[in-house]
Design a protein that fits this description.
This protein is mainly alpha-helical. Helix content is about 75%, strand content about 5%. It has ten helices and two strands, in the order ααααααααααββ. The chain has a two-stranded antiparallel ribbon. A hairpin with a 2-residue loop joins strand 1 and strand 2. Helix 1 runs parallel beside helix 3. The longest helix has 18 residues.
């Protein structure tokens, strides 16, 4: 029996559409994802997966938009993540929000501990692997970041977000030519533009 069986079908539809929009990246899709996921939890306050997705959508929104402050987005994300974990303590993406906030506040040890706990629950979660890789890259542990992105790549061999992370690792290691080759592949072969680690699909 799936987790959505017996739930309000409108709430499930809002959750699925909001999650799909978030995966598209960019300001417009991310804003719409927040809107739809908010509607989903308003219809069903016990929908843990929707609360977790809403937390993720909030935490990434300032990446794309200057109109939302990082502090506002963090507060909203923490509220949603806390609600998600109250309903289902195994939700690793909600737990990763806690890690991201800890990192943002300079508590690197707590952030690392939370990421490790989340990966023990869901070791094949590529988003989680990438976020943990970013954590290590920011503190200068590039070998750990490379290992995590390689693990993610093995799971999703042609994923643009993963390939973008690998390009960033190459730059950090001083492998400029390899990094540029990866970016050229993303730009010209996959039609994806990378700007400061943020990717948007190029519209012809």
């Amino acid at each position: 029996v799936g987790p959505d069986v017996g739930r309000d079908p409108i709430a499930v539809d809002l959750y699925e559409r909001g999650s799909a929009l978030w995966r598209q990246r960019g300001e417009g899709p991310n804003r719409q994802a927040v809107k739809l996921l908010t509607q989903a939890v308003e219809r069903d306050d016990t929908y843990a997966a929707a609360w977790s997705a809403l937390a993720t959508a909030w935490i990434t929104l300032p990446t794309y938009s200057d109109e939302v402050s990082a502090s506002e987005a963090t507060d909203e994300a923490l509220l949603a993540a806390d609600r998600a974990l109250q309903l289902d303590a195994t939700l690793v993406e909600a737990r990763s929000i806690m890690a991201s906030v800890a990192k943002g506040r300079g508590d690197w040890l707590s952030s690392e501990r939370i990421y490790r706990e989340a990966l023990r629950v869901d070791p094949d979660n590529t988003s989680l692997l990438l976020w943990f890789a970013g954590h290590y890259r920011e503190v200068g542990f590039i070998n750990e970041a490379v290992n995590l992105t390689d693990a993610a790549l093995a799971l999703e061999p042609n994923s643009p977000p993963i390939l973008s992370e690998i390009a960033m690792n190459h730059y950090q290691l001083g492998h400029v030519e390899q990094a540029q080759e990866m970016l050229d592949y993303l730009w010209f072969s996959l039609g994806v533009e990378t700007l400061g680690g943020v990717m948007t699909v190029m519209i012809p």
